[in-house]
C-alpha cells in the first residue's frame, strides 16, 4: 500500500514539472514574438484602389488595375495590423497623362502625398513597387447593330417557308465604353435548330454577348424568331432562253429552243407565279472558251416565292450556221 502511494506521488510530481516546463516555453516564445514585433521592418503591402476624379465625361474603357503594391516601413505590430485591415486607398485621376486615343498613364510619384496621408501614422511610405499605372479612358457611346440569325430549320417533307424569316427586333442598341462599342458591328443570336417543321414558328431566343466587352449594355437580351410555314407543291413552266456573247452576224440553232423550269411554291402563292417571272440565259463565250459543243442554261431572274428550282435540260445542243 505504501509502495503504491509513493509511486503515485512521484508520477504527479513528474507531471507538474512537465507543465511548468511547457508554461516556461510558451512564455519564452511569446516574449520572443513580442520582441520581434516591436522591431521595425521594411516590406511590401498590397492596397485595394478606389479611383476618383476622372477627367470630364470620361469613363474606364476596361477594368483598371484595382490594387497597388507599396514598399513601407513600420513596426511588426503595425505591419501585422495592416495585414488584417481592409486596406483601400483613393487615387485621383484628374491629372492623368494621355499617350494615345484611349491610352492614359499616371505616375504614382505625383500622388505620393495623397496616398501617404491615407496610410496609418505609424506606417511610412518608402516607394511604390510599380511606379506607373496605365488606363484606357474614353467616352460613353451608343450604337445600333444588326442581329445575325444562327438558325437551322429543317422542314417536314412538302413544307417550307412561305416568306423570309423575321427577327423582332432585327437590330439592337448597344452602349458603353467607346473602345468596346467600336469593336462590335453585329450581334449573333443563339443557335436554334428545329426539325420536322410543318407549322408557323414563333419562338424567343437570347442573343450571344461577345466576349471581352463586359462593360457593354444591351437594350434587349432576347429576340423573337417569326417564320410563316405552309405546304408546298411542285409546278413548272416552259421558258425560252437568251444567248449572250454571240459574235455579230453568227446564226445559231439550238435544240431545244426553250427549257423547263421546275420549282416548289407555297399553295397560297401558286397562282401568283407565271413563266414571265423567270429569265434564263446561255453564255456562248463560256462554251467557246471551254471548247464545249453545248450551252449551259442559267437562271438569272426568279421570283422570291419559289424554291428548289431545277432547269431541264441542263445542257443545250447547238449548231452554228455558216
Describe the structure.
The chain contains 5 helices and 26 strands. The chain has about 325 residues and is α+β, with helices and mostly antiparallel strands. Strands 12-18-16-14-9-13-17 form a 7-stranded mixed sheet. Strands 11, 19, 21, 22, 24 and 25 form a 6-stranded mixed sheet that branches. Strand 5 and strand 6 form a beta hairpin. Helix 1 packs across helix 2. It is elongated, with a radius of gyration of 41 Å. The mean pLDDT is about 85.
Features of this protein?
322 residues, alpha+beta, seven-stranded mixed beta sheet, six-stranded mixed beta sheet, 5 helices, elongated
Rg, alpha carbons: 41 Å
| Assembly form of the protein | single chain
SS strand fraction: over 45%
Spans of at least 5 consecutive residues with low confidence: none
> What is the β-strand count?
26
What value does the average pLDDT take? Answer: 84
Q: What is the helix fraction of residues, given as a range? A: 10-25%
| Shape descriptor | elongated
Q: State the secondary-structure class.
A: alpha+beta
| Strand line-up across the major sheet | 12-18-16-14-9-13-17
Total of helices: 5
Distance between the termini: 146 Å
The major sheet is characterized as: 7 strands, mixed
Amino acid at each position: 500500500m505504501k509502495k503504491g502511494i509513493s509511486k503515485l506521488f512521484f508520477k504527479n510530481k513528474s507531471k507538474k514539472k512537465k507543465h511548468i516546463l511547457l508554461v516556461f516555453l510558451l512564455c519564452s516564445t511569446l516574449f520572443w514574438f513580442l520582441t520581434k514585433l516591436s522591431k521595425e521592418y521594411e516590406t511590401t503591402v498590397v492596397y485595394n484602389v478606389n479611383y476618383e476624379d476622372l477627367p470630364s465625361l470620361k469613363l474606364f474603357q476596361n477594368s483598371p488595375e484595382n490594387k497597388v503594391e507599396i514598399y513601407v516601413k513600420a513596426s511588426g505590430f503595425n505591419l501585422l495590423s495592416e495585414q488584417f485591415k481592409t486596406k483601400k486607398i483613393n487615387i485621383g485621376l484628374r491629372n492623368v497623362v494621355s499617350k494615345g486615343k484611349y491610352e492614359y498613364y499616371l505616375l504614382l510619384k505625383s500622388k505620393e502625398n495623397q496616398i501617404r496621408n491615407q496610410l496609418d501614422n505609424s506606417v511610412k511610405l518608402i516607394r511604390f513597387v510599380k511606379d506607373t499605372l496605365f488606363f484606357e479612358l474614353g467616352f460613353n457611346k451608343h450604337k445600333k447593330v444588326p442581329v445575325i440569325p444562327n438558325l437551322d430549320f429543317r422542314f417536314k417533307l412538302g413544307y417550307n417557308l412561305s416568306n423570309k424569316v423575321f427577327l423582332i427586333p432585327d437590330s439592337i442598341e448597344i452602349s458603353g465604353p467607346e473602345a468596346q462599342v467600336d469593336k462590335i458591328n453585329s450581334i449573333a443570336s443563339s443557335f436554334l435548330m428545329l426539325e420536322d417543321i410543318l407549322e408557323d414558328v414563333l419562338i424567343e431566343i437570347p442573343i450571344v454577348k461577345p466576349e471581352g466587352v463586359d462593360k457593354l449594355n444591351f437594350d434587349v437580351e432576347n429576340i423573337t424568331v417569326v417564320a410563316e410555314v405552309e405546304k408546298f407543291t411542285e409546278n413548272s413552266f416552259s421558258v425560252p432562253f437568251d444567248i449572250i456573247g454571240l459574235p455579230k452576224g453568227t446564226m445559231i440553232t439550238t435544240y431545244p429552243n426553250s427549257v423547263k423550269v421546275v420549282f416548289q411554291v407555297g399553295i397560297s402563292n401558286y397562282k401568283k407565279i407565271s413563266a414571265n417571272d423567270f429569265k434564263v440565259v446561255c453564255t456562248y463565250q463560256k462554251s467557246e472558251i471551254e471548247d464545249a459543243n453545248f450551252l449551259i442554261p442559267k437562271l438569272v431572274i426568279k421570283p422570291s416565292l419559289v424554291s428548289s428550282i431545277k432547269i431541264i435540260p441542263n445542257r443545250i445542243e447547238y449548231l452554228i450556221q455558216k
